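Hello again, I could really use a second opinion on something today. I've been staring at a protein lately and its backbone has me curious. Please have a think about how the structure follows from the sequence. I owe you a coffee for this, so here goes:
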Amino acid sequence: METYLGIDIGYGDTKVVYIDSNFSILNSFSFPTLVAFYTPSSMEKKNLIISYGGKEFVIGNEARGEASCFSPVDFEDMKEFAPLILKGIMQMNNFKEPEDVLICASLPPGWWPYRKEFEKALQREQSSSVVVVPQGHGAFVTAARQEEMERGELVLVLDFGFNTVNYLLIEVIEPDGSDFQINKGDTIVGMGIIRLVDFFKNKLNGELKKLPDRAIREMLKKGECKIYEEKLDFSGPKRRAIEEYCTLLMMELKKTVGEIWREVDAMVCSGGGVYYFNPIKNLPHHRIIVPERPEYANAEGQAIWLAKNIVD
């Protein structure tokens, strides 16, 4: 039986969902988008060592303890190391018949002119078939399965990542999301959750600003933290940071999409970034759809889209 794999490689995390021909989710997981050369240690055992380009690598959490640990930051990095990450994913799942695994990966819309180059790079290490779609494509498919659209509706997909916000302007052809037309799309660099974190960090006092970024992100997400057993409330700074972030986001959308964002019939908000603020409450639109698992919305929709196109 064929397996359909949806992969969303982001600046912060890589999300993976795979399903069968009946559209049942077999597994979903995520890990940090980190890569490092593997260096043997007598006191540590790595569970997943990947041979790639004549060298040995580790990825995800296992890369954290390596001196060479880094995260891809541009297209050239992604083109070079996404095939390594994909190879690691295939090893993690130990697919016995990789030729029966069909893969749908995604690329930020801003990099779409390089799609064929990226697709070729991913295919290089695989016996599985690989196709590439723009990020946000899968989120729309997932949202349409959750809440049917109307034919002819115009939908703005906003995919909130760590460093970027990807957007697609989509015209609905089939209400269940099986067919649609992408009219426009791009990537807004620097407007991901990292910008919201900066707004929040600037509202903290004194030594709190010196905390690691990971700790500050957790404070922002929860609106509170515990220091020396004392619970501190950051709901005020969080609210003000979200207000500033959403105002700036709408200004950026106006510059890139134009006034049409006010006229769309619905907005789909996906990505792990939506956990840091509530799009339904904070974005100025009457119909906002947030997939049930926003961080997996792209990967899940990509797998479903692939399965529907092959099965149908």
Observations:
- Residues 155 and 266 are 5 Å apart (CA to CA).
- The radius of gyration is 20 Å.
